[in-house]
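Quick one:
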Amino acid sequence: MCGLVGIFDTTGRRPVDRDLLSAMNDSLAHRGPDGDDLHLEEGIGLGHRRLSIIDLAGGSQPMFNEDGTVAVIYNGEIYNFQELAQELRERGHRFHSVCDTEVIVHAWEEWGADCVQRFRGMFAFALWDGNSETLFLARDRLGIKPLYYAALPDGRLIFGSEMKALLCDPVLEREFDIQGIEEYFAFGYVPDPRTIYRSVHKLPPAHTLVWQRGKPQPAPQRYWEICFQADNRMKEADACVELRERMSEAVKIRLMADVPLGAFLSGGVDSSSVVSMMAEHSSGPVNTCSIGFDVPDFDEAIYAEQVAKHLNTDHRSRQVAADSFDLIEDMSKFYDEPFADSSAMPTYQVCRLARESVTVALSGDGGDEAFAGYRRYRWHHYEEMVRGTLPGPLRQPVFSLLGRIYPKMDWAPRSFRAKTTFQALARESVEGYFHSVSILSDALRQRLYSPRMQRELQGYHARSVLEDTLKDAPVEHHLDRVQYADMKTYLPGDILTKVDRASMATSLEVRVPLLDHKLLEWAATLPPAFRLRAREGKYLLKKAMEERLPHDILYREKMGFSIPLATWFRGPLREVVRRRLLNGALDQVGLFDMGFIERLLDEHATGISDHSVPIWALLMFESFLSNVHLAAVASRVPARATGT
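Output:
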């Protein structure tokens, strides 16, 4: 895995600041500790940090075509590069390496922007074509690899694998995107293409950006879509066989590496299935690793050990303290913008453990989105069935009334917590799903924001993200809709961002076979009942793996990969958190009602309510302010006029 940076003069051929380009490249040293290089010519500068995985001797970047007029910097793996290289040789192209990077150069020469249609894998790359003075940026279909960019007032475009590289440029504006803050406190991350700063954008998954010098700023263009269309002729037994074959092939092509390779093993269905397929294609035991916690309710290590023994893997496990609070400072520096998924901490810890013995690790990420594994899909399915039986004019007033009068009982078993269910049933479908994925409710966010923040929002609501995503979604069933929504928002914005930054912080490459786009395209043809049946999510995946994995592993209750926030914030971290939130950087930005934050802390500490999620979101925002934003603002200088 690697890191890339670049500076492009979109208006002319002004010299590129070599020192700035070098600083941008050095900021990504963790993504590529094995080598670095810069390439500069009139009006364009490219930088690359390399983590050597394939063709250790000949894969240095930037990489060029035969006459040096086309250059590429690239982060990722193209798993079908050997077949593409052979096809390109037959068309007259000459190769000087045996790595996948060079395929991108020649594929661009042969097919232009359509080259991305032929790539199977994970990638983010920037390609410069000196003949047409064109910069081509591309990101893989699911958003496994990141790419940030910003068009500056002086006519330059800067880009990089992480936002920290862009923040090296003192001209870059550091003004908050207020709508991005609203989205952060709704989702726990800032969804693509927005970032926390108005001036910076993420290139969305499955998009390219083609910018020709001297031309107006282009809009990103989509090159791939996931379409849900059920094949109702499919037989369950046949589907199980085909799923195993497709998963096996997706895993097999991800085993290519010239460095040690292993896998994460949590003991859940997804990672266990991936390791099972790896064992099928490996001549010796698969290297696996997992971490356990010193809090039993959050510890899955026993299940990982059970699967490791069943599959005869070379397993390494380590118990870590659940209160590794010191990692919070590092987390904000890894992510560059507020990121409230607390599982980022154990993800980083398992990546650090894996890196002690391997350079590449396969993970089971994506299985929940592909095969409907989240519990919220089940609840949404039930709610949609009720919505379908009662017309809105009747359903909304009835359930709104029940939601108001029914007592709130967060402490009770879920079957008795009907208030939330009644409130959900009173909403329309998209609004209902938005509330199921929100980390802070509408009411809580409104009370959290200061009057200034509310004014600057001008009525904007984070629900718009899902509304825009689902407006023309190529789906047939309500289960398709929420899976599609998650693939476009939660998967790239949360899951894949979490894994990329945590793994790259340790210089570890993570591959995700369950997000192979050909596998996903097939999975989208599964009838809804093959994905979710009664209370069983991932129904077909579990049935397909019954002959390979223990029954109690496949059908145990889903735990997730989380940490005991509520206990932390009432225990040893109580005073630390209180001091950080009330006496730290939050008050300085004027966006929050500090009195309400104090009330949240008091109610949580006394046990009146569990406010661990909003407290964590605030803590991560404060950490971003203290460790990233304030330093970024201090380094800002006024922009130069265009053309200087």
